[in-house]
Design goal:
6 copies of one chain form a homohexamer. The first copy, chain A, is built from 8 helices and 9 strands. The first copy, chain A, has about 250 residues and is an alpha+beta fold. Chain A has one domain: Ribosomal Protein S5, domain 2 (2-Layer Sandwich), CATH 3.30.230. Chain A has a 5-stranded mixed beta sheet with strand order 1-2-3-5-4. Chain A is globular, with a radius of gyration of 18 Å. Chains in contact: A-B, A-F, B-C, C-D, D-E, E-F. Strand 9 of chain D pairs antiparallel with strand 9 of chain E.
Chain lengths: ~250, ~250, ~250, ~250, ~250, ~250
């Protein structure tokens, strides 16, 4: 069976990243992956949370939210509910953790990077689009700091893979695929091809090691393409990524 | 003295409204007023709040929010703070009240219209841009309902006027003007030129009746122009607005 | 048609202010306007909120609340609900803003004035009675500070005006009038006759400029009478109000 | 040593109860005990909480609050804090429990009595004054229900007793006595002289059985006087209290 | 009538205290009273709350909680509800107050003792078991501090007494007795036989002074036995309790 | 280098499960994994959440918490903080999702299983111990329902694997290993050897596919041993697990 939008199993949806989308933030990107659209902004704050104070290290943290009508039916705002839901918390912790894996926090210095990912339209893959877009916003903000050593050590992008009843293992699930998938996996990888995070879940279902390997192959190839896109957007700044690690060799 | 952006005292900033900006909502508009950008969406819910149940009348309510980096420095999310601030409450109550003034809630039938106004970039006048944009999103959503009598009774738009030390009474203040104004007034008016809401505040200052009249003159003229824009966007749907009132004559 | 309590359109309800109503606060007034009763207290705190620290300026802030049975049916306490409602927020922001317009915050020095307005019985006009009463409590508290320059620059009082179907424009609406009024406007004005705040709202209705002017005329006259009452209560202290402005001339 | 206000060890402060203090509630009393003033209101709601529904029994519940400046320094409102403190909870649970002990909830029928006790001025003994005053407000509200059997089975009043370093066991402590007392005890008793509630606490101190007995003697005598006051206020309604129990004999 | 578990009116349930139950806390006890089981832990924090800072005095505070299935039907977690209930607040305030009565806070020095009482199985008397167990955990934690003067001035234990329809006055009520008792009283007493806290409540009922005395006699005897158990568990540390008071003689 | 507790890289810590640990719950287990101790209870509620009502399907949900002194320093209670932290949310969502993967919710019928996992002592691996223990408590509770078809389709257990600087890939990390690990992975697998959930995270680090495979091998072997333990505890009930799937073949 073919996928609803005629894509092949190993094909990403069209991806676009519009840099400097907003005038105020130190870095901002509107990332579009198929019909999914996320505004990613990076803010630099010249202080760190209490647990890091005085250690000369920086911090990176993320917040994630969806507009009420990013989805087919209206979701109640978390501000109205008075608390942040479990899904939101999980996603914003994931984004922050992922970004921290490719930044040398000591070279960043005692400051905090806030990455805000606001989904204005959702069609599956909002958390992986958020990571891929937030990475670019973050690099843009960092490049405006006048740092002697560039603290970003590698590229970073994310995508989803899954197993559906009709099409087996597929790359980059849209909402209709995601909501019927038997297995759903999010992958975050670096430019060197290493894993940063891998979260696979059987949805009232399970999966074998062979299926795992099939999904990992699809995911790796997809992430390689996303990182190519990031390089295009970042232009010359891309050349600075990992320069410190190379120079240390 | 001339205004920072060379505008005349009675000149609006450039206004644009992009209809059907999102795929999911029943109505959606991205309104741009100068550098201020607000996503307005309209959602139709087929039930009413408890206090209206069983009366055959509909309800219109609004929610307002800003992305954390809509502004020059990052604002803490209200969802993280666990509560909605006073300014936000004031604005969303104003938006809802204003829209209800031009809709015959009985003709709307027992359903709720949710208007979500999410500011993605702020440069003054976010609440008045929200009203002007939300009105269009609302009319678009209502026009998709198959109602025998069109419940929208009139056009509705809003703008700000104020008094600054350097330029006296001016129309449509941007952020830099608003933050130094001595008097700040928001006006909501209908297509017939009647007031729906008028809120004038001396900011650690006061104003005379003559100044009030000067501001009202500027505001009326500005709102007339905004309503012309709304008519363009709405096209044929604009013709249905107020038709019921006319036919009742 | 005559008003339910036989008042003329331009007639205030009986007003009384009982000064030093409580033993603990630095200033306290029980204000009675018809059947509406509000306890207004002023507290002096020798520090300012974070955003003002170190600037040598003071701050004035207000809180407003109703006893559960201030009204015909019992309202749930906001403390039980765990959050402050939008109406309360709107009112307490209005009271604070209004009072700040007639106090020179630099002459006040680095301290905060807290004005607490607790409605023990409500019959319309609770927010305007709160402003009128809180002004007196505030002046009493300030007069106890040994300041070289008296920081209160003018008198301040508030009332409501509105348009009802049966009686047209009227002054000082009680609850039964307020709940059926087509237009409802709150006015805050100074002893010099300037506006501090003006908030007019069509309740699922609109109003013309001629109606606006009619309401403003009624309001101005009403406020003039309220300020006469304040002068009586304040006695000699009233003479100090605005003395600084006069001496600067 | 004599007490600061010249009272004898076994002497109550002057007590006054102003019935029908407010126009809206079904019952209302302003109780004054020395400088302590509490507004007690009774509201009848024609339904019961979920756990009692359908059992033909009524319920009695109380809420207690202090105005921010009821005390020498300003207390933050619990509504602003977003939660009710432990002391408030303890007191409102005590008031409700005490009142339920003298009402036959089956004879009350499936309705809830809300007793709101709002302290407008505090000088010690606010919880016991609340019970004594709320009892009267409650009886007044119940007497307006047209019930065939009067559900109030006995009188009820409360006072405090304590042990101070200088004066030994004393009755009805004011704030200055309460804050230095070694032992503090609240007593709630009925017209028949039985205990409903007795709460004695050594404040970083302890007490002997002999001291306990001395305090109980003082408390009993004080409560007898308070009940006399209640009978005066209630007039003929007082005659109905306990009539059912008597008729059952 | 005999009690359900064949106990005599003046008989405690079997009591056990397992010291050093957990590896991390400075003091820990699993106390078992019949089927009631409570984990009590003591934590030493080297700072005091704001209101005590700089006075050279320590502080003791307690928190109390039940596992959701400590009881016959599942209770919602207070963390999920987002707030602590009135009953929990009352109990944790009681535990803290009781412990403070037997510790010389000046000799403790500027540090806070946190006593956490977590009920893992409930069958009546959880608050009194918490006090009895927390006392032991507290003494163990204090004995690890190298203090020149031992700050614990006396032993402390708690039990419940009550009056039931079938058995009159009884000691140490289990859940089935407690839920049908007419009067319920909690007693906290010291090794010297003095009262620290006494809370008696008629549950929709009242009690006479003779009944009070009967309950106090039962309670005193029960507490004496509990203190004997504490001495066994504490071994040599028990000898240090009150040594300061003795040496001051 | 050898591990601190002399374990081999592929060695689990000692595991114990004490069934029927508490008297009230429908199923209860105290699971001990090394020094980690978790009380797991299962509660059956005869209704389902709103989104499932009327579909004839059941639901399984989990809650997770730690006692304040389960850890080396005291953690603030989430009930006191008034909200549940992100880590707790993530864990309780994981536990619920994992258990649902091995239960046929239609055969369970319209009821909810609540699994409460309360950590009384933590030394690493609390979430995986919770899953392994909660599975047993759940099966015990289900076996008390008189269901014609046994809804549990397979065994389920969880463990952690990781990569440390000194010892490379290791199984079942204790707290000291976990806090210094470069990669941390949680695995949930079934009796048939399939994955239910796999979550691997580079902690400010990354990992290769070869390292992933090494960790998966260790994890599979560890989980096989845990499932053997579960079979011992469950005795005859273990024979019913998966019987439906087998009979459907």
């Amino acid at each position: 069976m073919t996928r609803a939008d005629e894509r092949k199993a190993d094909e990403l949806r069209p991806v676009d990243m519009q840099a400097d989308y907003l005038i105020h933030p130190e870095g901002s990107v509107l990332i579009t992956v198929g019909q999914t659209k996320v505004i990613c902004t990076a803010t630099i704050e010249e202080k760190v949370p209490g647990f890091l104070r005085g250690q000369g290290k920086g911090w990176i943290t993320a917040e994630y939210s969806m507009l009420p009508r990013a989805t087919g039916s209206r979701n109640r705002r978390e501000a109205s509910a008075g608390k942040i839901g479990g899904r939101t918390m999980e996603i914003q912790r994931l984004i922050g953790r992922a970004l921290r894996a490719v930044v040398d926090l000591e070279k960043l210095g005692e400051r905090t990077l806030w990455l805000d990912c606001d989904v204005i339209q959702a069609d599956g893959g909002t958390r992986t689009a958020s990571i891929t877009g937030a990475y670019v916003a973050m690099v843009m903000a960092i490049s405006k700091l006048e740092l002697t050593a560039f603290p970003v050590t590698d590229f970073l992008a994310a995508t989803s893979v899954g197993i559906t009843h009709d099409n087996g293992a597929i790359l980059d699930l849209d909402y209709s695929e995601d909501s019927t998938a038997e297995v759903d996996m999010n992958l975050v990888m670096t430019g060197k091809g290493n894993f940063v995070e891998l979260q696979g879940t059987g949805e009232e279902s399970t999966f074998t090691r062979a299926q795992l390997n099939e999904m990992l192959d699809l995911g790796e190839a997809g992430i390689r393409q996303l990182i190519e896109k990031q390089k295009e957007i970042l232009g010359d700044t891309a050349l600075r990524i990992g320069e410190e690690t190379r120079s240390e060799l």
